[in-house]
Amino acid sequence: MSALLDVRDVHVYLGQSHVLQGVSFSVPEGGVTALLGRNGVGKTTTLRAIMGLAPAGAGRIALAGEDVSQLATHRIVQRGVGYVPEDRDVFAGLTVEENLRVAERNGSARYDLVWELFPMLKGHLDQRAGTLSGGEQQMVAIARALLNDNQVLLIDEPTKGLAPNLVTEVARVLERVAELTTVLLVEQNLGVVRALAGDAIVLDQGRVVHSGPARALLEDQAQVRRFLGVSGAGS
Amino acid sequence: MSTFLLLTITGLGLGAMYFLIASGLSLIYGLMGVLNFAHGAFITIGAYATWRFMEAFAGLDPLVVRFLLAAACGVAFGAAFAAIVELVLIRPLYERHIEQVLVTVGLGLAVTALTEAIWTPTQKLFVMPHWLVDTTTIGGARIPNDRWVEISAAAIVLVALLSFLRFTRYGLIVRAGVENRAMVTALGIDVQKAFTLVFTIGGVAAALAGVLSGVYFGSVDPLQGTRLLIFAFIVVVIGGLGSLGGCAVASVAVGLLQQYANYYGSQHGAGSGIGDLSVMLLLAVVLLVRPAGLAGVTATRAG
Question: Residue B91 and residue A184: Cα distance in Å, rounded?
């Protein structure tokens, strides 16, 4: 498979911190690639650098062969990059319907897909997003990214803080999403990673320390402990 | 009773001008995080352009048409100036808040100085239709007619702004941007277009306030914009940054308080500054009780 997203030697500085120290990896077209690592190693910053939200001090980020590292965030998104941030970042004072409407691009919003995946949202259209539960807010955040036909979706810890039944629900949604588009997924729940990811990239202290098939990584308990600091038995 | 009614309508007229200025300030800060100290310049330009166009259209009859045309030109000048300021001075300085303050303060001072240099610091009489300088007697109170115009203009601007925010796509983008600007860009939206639009809308409202301040005071002078701006900032802080509703309520409260305190204070031997002092006390109380203002929102701009 060809690389849809290619990240080469990307450095990001946040204040005095050298957060990403030459990160390089490729995301193949189709399926889910997991971006793993302990807390604070730079996973979220990597996604934000791809989005243009954390300015890359050096390096190159290419989408389908085009260098997007110097583009403004909205230009990157318009080239087909969807983003579901770690903290969901729904617009709390806007209704669910308005949260979806503000995300519409090019007049071709895929509401059919959104209703198929999140039928419950139809019953909350007039409700302010800030009054939804954490799981419902996550659905709005994912729905917002799915509304447009993107080449790749960057999804940051979609199951964080969710009850187990909602984790299963989100995993089911992501499985369907992965049939439609390429996904770069930051996820701490290794059960979800095992169920969804074809490839895995592991970050440590701002650098890529492992890259390869996700299943092989997760079956190697020693590597899981070494890179992620947990056992691989997470569900 | 007639005095109270006169004070109330006059306070509402003053509050209307504060609202026209503060609404733009509030939206600009809410969306862009820019404290626009040059907002007073938009007021001055609106007022002086109207005054100059009244002279330029001297042969035009009737007077009301001449005034409306001059006022439209004044508002257009204020709007154009605001758009240029955003594009040329503010846009290169996003996220550089200290520089923004320096540039906007400097621009405000420069426009005042330039106005003084060109037209001298003396007041210029504002020529306006006779009906505006006349009064209407209601409940025994002789209410200056211009107060109705100021109140109506502010009400129309409030409804127009709320409709813009509620029913248009750009309004939706502005409301989302006030909450979380970075996320708006992460949805593929060029938020800078919304910045220019909001700045221009702020310029329109401030220039309109400039025109109406000329009507209210009967004259314009180079420091008029700055004087009004101080109270508009107080209104924005009391109402809550980014909230139009809070801004409207605070404008009315400040306008009324100033009028009541000035009149009733002077009846009890207080000095002429009692109205301004009362407004400062109101500001202090609101900041102590509700630091985010009456309807403040917490914006997220990290990005």
Answer: 33
Q: pLDDT tens, B153-185?
A: 999 999 999 999 999 999 999 899 888 989 999
How many whole angstroms separate alpha carbon B18 and alpha carbon B49?
20
Shortest CB distance from B172 goes to which of A73, A98, A148? A98
B294 or A127, higher pLDDT = A127
Q: Which residues, 6+ apart, have CB-to-CB distance to B102 below 8 Å? A: none
User: Which residues sit opposite A32 in a β-bridge?
Assistant: A183, A197
Answer whether residue B61 shows pLDDT above 90.
Answer: no
For residue A60, pLDDT beyond 60: yes
Side by side, the strands of the sheet bearing A17-28 are: A17-28, A3-14, A56-63, A66-67
Q: What is the mean pLDDT of residues B60-66?
A: 89
Instruction: Judge: B186–A85 Cβ closer than 8 Å, yes or no.
Output: yes
CA B189 to chain A, closest CA, distance in angstroms equals 5
Please give the single-letter amino acid code of residue A141: A
Which is nearest to B301 in space by CA: B170, B199, B186? Answer: B186
> B243 to chain A: nearest residue by CA?
A93
**Whether this model's pTM surpasses 0.90:** no
End-to-end CA distance of chain B: 55
| Unique residue bearing structure tokens 């997220």 | B300
- Partners of A89 on chain B (C-beta within 8 Å) are 180, 182-183, 186, 300
- Asked if B179 reaches chain A (Cβ–Cβ under 8 Å), the answer is yes
Q: Residue B297: what pLDDT?
A: 55
Look at B187 and A93 and tell me if their CB atoms are within 8 Å.
Answer: no
Q: Where do the H-state alpha helices sit in chain B? A: 2-32, 39-56, 63-85, 97-119, 130-133, 146-167, 169-179, 181-185, 191-217, 224-239, 244-267, 274-289
Can you say whether the dihedral through the CA atoms of B24, B28, B29, B30 is positive or negative? positive
Alpha-carbon gap, residue B160 to B158, rounded angstroms = 5
Q: Structure tokens of A6?
A: 């290619």
Q: Which amino acid is at B145?
A: N
- Give the rounded percent of residues in chain B with a pLDDT score beyond 90: 72
How distant is the alpha carbon of residue A114 from its chain centre?
A: 17
With a cut of 90, say whether residue A108 has pLDDT above it.
no
Per-residue confidence band for B292, with pLDDT thresholds at 50, 70 and 90: confident
Dihedral angle sign, alpha carbons of residues A38, A41, A44, A50: negative
**Whether B172 and A74 lie within 8 Å, measured CB to CB:** no
User: What's residue B298's pLDDT?
Assistant: 47
User: Which positions in chain A touch B185 (Cβ < 8 Å)?
Assistant: 53, 72-74, 77
Cβ within 8 Å, pair B176-A91:
yes
ipTM of the complex: 0.90
Encoded amino acid at B302, one letter: A
